[in-house]
Amino acid sequence: MTKQPYRKHIFFYHKQDETINEQLERLKDVAVNNDFTVVDEAKKANIIVSIGGDGAFLQTVRKTGFRQDCLYVGIALQHEIELYCDFNLENFSELLYAVQHEEEIEVRRFPLIDVSINGVASSKCLNEISVRSPIVKTIVMDIYIDDLHFETFRGDGLVVATPTGSTGYNKSTMGAIIDPKLPCFQVTELASLNNNKYRTLGSSFILSSEKKLHLEIEQGGNDFPVISFDNEAFPIRNVKEVTVGLSNQVVKTVKLKNNTYWDRVKRMFL
Ligand code: NAP
User: Fold this and answer.
1) Annotated binding site for NAD(+)
2) Is the pTM of this model over 0.70?
3) What digits encode the pLDDT tens for the residues 62-91?
């Protein structure tokens, strides 16, 4: 009896762009010729392919609901180096081959964070959540780690990043780059005010999967922060509290051999 391919229903997620549209027909033909079925809705797929860069990959995962029963694949345009994209338009058949040969497939599992706002589960994030002042005034937040009042923050805002998000916004705020095999999340400050009244740690800090970060936003003035989940911003009124913890869900992607996370970090930044 012939072994059935591991996964067969493939969905392409991409923005409407002339160059991508041209390439897409070719990718679909390659998929069909390799015994895959191209489906027209993400919910019918067990492989979801994002075409574009890291921003496109973030959108793909978000818009398709952080599916746990799917493999996500990032295809970069040309030979750009991207954090979430192991494949490009030239080596697409390698992806299909890998998926058809279960024994050869390597799957990465990227940690996610869960965010609740005012006690209501609001979103998962693959890169980060940021909480920022929308106006020229600073934002004030009491920061708790579990039940411990850790510090009172006053400044532009905070970024709470996953390990794979650590090379994004987090890196620009001098956060460390974290190996995604470590189940943790990182908090970095955006321009904190430090004086006799307000004192913050000043450096980023990393919390384990057992910890919860709790932000209580001072009311009366700046309680309308801009909250960004990855690359989407949500102006939410009357934000009193934000809670962040590591999710027990992950994003699964197909990994090319000899292309570790640190290979990509090196290619991207060094
Ligand atoms: P964007 O503002 O158009 O681009 C931000 C850049 O970050 C793009 O070059 C994007 O790559 C890259 N990027 C995204 N996720 C990354 C990751 N995990 N590691 C390394 N680079 C990454 O927005 P976008 O493309 O939609 O990406 C949204 C992300 O931008 C946010 O989640 C946040 O991490 C980042 N961001 C950074 C800053 C900052 O550094 N000051 C400010 C706001 C947001 P592609 O070109 O391949 O899409």
Assistant:
1) 54-55, 127-128, 137, 154, 156, 167-172, 191
2) yes
3) 999 999 999 999 998 876 778 999 888 888
